[in-house]
Amino acid sequence: MQTADIQRRWLDFFGSRGHTVVPSASLIADDPTVMFTIAGMVPFIPYLTGVVPAPYARATSVQKCIRTNDIEEVGKTTRHGTFFQMNGNFSFGDYFKAGAIEYAWELLTLPESEGGLGFAEKDLWVTVYEEDDEARRLWKSIAGLPDERIQNMGKEDNYWSTGQPGPAGPCSEIYFDRGPAYGPEGGPAVDDTRYIEIWNLVFMQYAIDQVTSKTDFRILGELPNKNIDTGMGMERVAFLKQGVENMYEIDQVRPVLDAAAGLSGRRYGADAEDDVRMRVIADHVRSSLMLMTDGVAPGNEGRGYILRRLMRRSIRAMRLLGVDAPSFEVLFGASRDAMSTAYPDVAENYDRVSRLALGEEEAFLRTLAAGTSILDLAVDRTAKAGGGTLAGDTAFQLHDTFGFPIDLTLEMAEEAGLSVDRAAFDRLMSEQRSRAKADAKSKKAVLADVSVYGEFRAHGETQFLGYEQLDT
Ligand code: ATP
Ligand code: MG
Ligand code: MG
Ligand code: MG
């Protein structure tokens, strides 16, 4: 079942059940405090919070999403992409808990020949919020699930709130059991590798106030208009339906992975570390393609900085696969071909996007070359002086002047048989940060890369970790 086929089944199913089909919004959220669209519900927030009356009682969408806070998981788990598509159905004061559970169960278990997703009932598990007896009762009566396959979860996992006074409510998540080859028995409460979360149902049931955190608040009472917000991960369903091992091997992603393998001359499946690198490249190239198609350009701040980091991380991973030559033309071309059926604007914008990508690659390869010659000199000097440790200020200069990520310096020093004085490097970094803070206070110019860190902090959810923490 191709990803586009899952999309069609989804929209047909909810469309024919009274839901207005709403096209995906841009990855760049309207809301300036949100860096990217991180969930299917983002474009519907004004309707869900009641700030704006909803123009329809029910809606459905397949929404493009970016989650940079999952970047560390990419390629290592089977199920986290920085870009992915979230399929949602939404009710604005119309159907509630029973309706949402009925629809989800019906679509998942309806045979493929009848337009459904054709999952076997025996492979599905659910979790409910521990105090939501109503949800447990509904899963038993609607789906006929036995109590053992309905697991309780606490507020941390199965409660939704914005952290602000307003709507909130319990969630219920649906999991697919991949079988004993993938981990221990016992359901999603025990293992999230064998049991893959595919769909989250949010029941916006209560009004809350006195909020001190996402899990600590007072329930004022039931909302007069209860809403439903659900999100199904389309890549996760695709990989389970396509009989492949993870979301990086589905039809929309795998061609990029194969292109990376082809360029490197290494075989996917031969080496665990190389496999992670290939999956990271496949993910990051696709995310970069989709971000640039939606108008983001690489830069030193905000969204552009995240895009730049995704592309540089791909280049780094290619380098670790032994490829120093430019590879974006091939990689982005493969991603374009895989994504254009679902997103014709990817092909329409490709000339502009590939110019950006190739320019970024060329610039970073130049940076790498310049940094490499400085590093080679320093390595030589250190070795001649009989030392085994590269000075911290060399690593700092490489970072500060050449934008050379520390993990790259560490790796290249190691290749030359040297270690790096990491403590001295860290000290210089933190001194630089304090200087920048002091500068900012006195309204002097702030170093570009440091101001960027501050900006990400302001964005909470989409906070992007420094390159040092992004090593693969
Ligand atoms: P997980 O616990 O696996 O990280 P989540 O609970 O963070 O998932 P939700 O916020 O509930 O995910 O999002 C709704 C659905 O979107 C999930 O059930 C999953 O199918 C999908 N999803 C979430 N994050 C990702 C991601 N990074 N890549 C692919 N699919 C995702
Ligand atoms: Mg998550
Ligand atoms: Mg989860
Ligand atoms: Mg979830």
Automatic annotation (TrEMBL):
Tagged with keyword Nucleotide-binding: yes
Annotated localization: Cytoplasm
Keyword entries, A-Z: Aminoacyl-tRNA synthetase, ATP-binding, Cytoplasm, Ligase, Metal-binding, Nucleotide-binding, Protein biosynthesis, RNA-binding, tRNA-binding, Zinc
Protein name per the record: Alanine--tRNA ligase
Lipid biosynthesis recorded as keyword: no
A GO MF term: alanine-tRNA ligase activity
Reactions this protein catalyses: tRNA(Ala) + L-alanine + ATP = L-alanyl-tRNA(Ala) + AMP + diphosphate
Main location: cytoplasm
Domain of life: Bacteria
GO biological process terms on file: alanyl-tRNA aminoacylation
Species the sequence originates in: Microcella pacifica
Note on how the cofactor is bound: Binds 1 zinc ion per subunit.
Enzyme Commission no: 6.1.1.7
Annotated function: Catalyzes the attachment of alanine to tRNA(Ala) in a two-step reaction: alanine is first activated by ATP to form Ala-AMP and then transferred to the acceptor end of tRNA(Ala). Also edits incorrectly charged Ser-tRNA(Ala) and Gly-tRNA(Ala) via its editing domain.
Cofactors demanded by this protein: Zn(2+)
Domain Alanyl-transfer RNA synthetases family profile: 1-472
Enzyme class: ligase
Segments traversing the membrane: none
Signal sequence, start to end: none
